[in-house]
Amino acid sequence: MRKVYPRGPLSYFRRSKLCSILLSLSFILFCFLFVIYENGNVVDMSSYESPENHEKYKDNDLSYKKLPSEINALDFFGSRRHNRNLQHLYSKDLFDEKRNKDLTKMIYKKRKIVSKSRQRGFFNVPKKTMSEKVKDTPSSRDVTDYYNFEGYRTTSSDESMESEPLDGPSKKLPKVIIIGVKKCGTRALLEFLRIHPEVKATGPEPHFFDRYYDYGLDWYRDLMPETNGEQMTIEKTPRYFVTKEVPGRVFNMSRDVKLVLIVRDPVTRAISDYTQVASKRASMKPFEQMALSDNHTGLVDTSWPVIKIGIYAKHLEEWLRYFPLEQFHFVNGENMVKRPSEEMFKLQDFLGLRRYINDSHFYMNDTRGFPCIQKTGSKYPHCLVGTKGRKHPRVDPNVIRRLQDFYRPFNKKFYQMTNIDFGWP
Length: 425
Fold this sequence. Notes:
CATH superfamily of the largest domain: P-loop containing nucleotide triphosphate hydrolases
Strand content: 5-15%
CATH architecture of the largest domain: 3-Layer(aba) Sandwich
Order of helices and strands: HHHHHHHHHEEHEHEEHEHHEEHHEHHEEH
Low-confidence stretches: 40-51, 53-96, 103-165
Number of helices: 19
Structural class: alpha/beta
Radius of gyration: 30 Å
Distance between the termini: 118 Å
Number of domains: 2
Helix content: 40-55%
């Protein structure tokens, strides 16, 4: 029997194949638009992490470095639904409540990916000082306080302890950092500070801000010793002073951190540095050949790191872009050997500590020409290990005079920057 269909244009459309095709395409388009609306225009992180696509994303899709605001950075990293939950970003109480659960966790994950391509920070940090950056716009102070320029929270020293327990010992971020200078007595200075009962210091050099910055602040805090509310956490890494990226990273951790720098005559420092390296390399050239690129003209080889470190004024300029001079304390390395208690009195005053370390805590080792520590209640003095205080090789006096002439204008500028005359030749 012949099948009979209802008459009319609608009935004809319903039984056509075109109807099913259009309905299917409409449903797919609806689902696609819904997904875009809910998730925003974000990078597929699973494909981003794949090795074959890593270079492509590194060059083309790290567009957040060009984004003008922190809200756009949040749009890049998370869905719009999650961003709507973070619209209270500038409300301090609500931000503190959620930052450890949501924002920090998300940023740490994305930082680990970005760091593999050696990309610096979530925003471009200008070369002008952070204090000038804060004054740019009325709302930029909030951005600096709660969302820093390299993905971590920028805080004052008081705010950085808000989430840390106060009723018992806990690991805290350092309030004081000995940033250098290498071969100027940084190790001895830290050991002298350990005498004070209100000071707790790290053991090995953390090298967080110059080598392991990608590990995050939680990893860094875990390296610190446990302290109570009356004790101060201190760490030492001399390489910080000469690493260009470190000042901004330290500022992002805390803009109120106190910075200690111990310096000595740059010529003596260079010879000491060479002595340490030569003790590990038997085939190393003499100091005179390494220091001068041309023996006839006496041209100093400024590309040699041993020479470059001693240009203190150049490195200090980078730090002064972020921190005022009042947050620095400069220790005279030569005077610390001759009169250690005098330098420790000044340092204790700068750190706000009572004058506990005095002459009774030091014993001069005439053999090595360096003071040892006489701890309270100990029968014997504690001296640094045998690798410290090595005997320097004899250096041609003409080369020494040439290096003194080279460093003299830099030393003079350093004196002006610090308002201290160290009296180097």
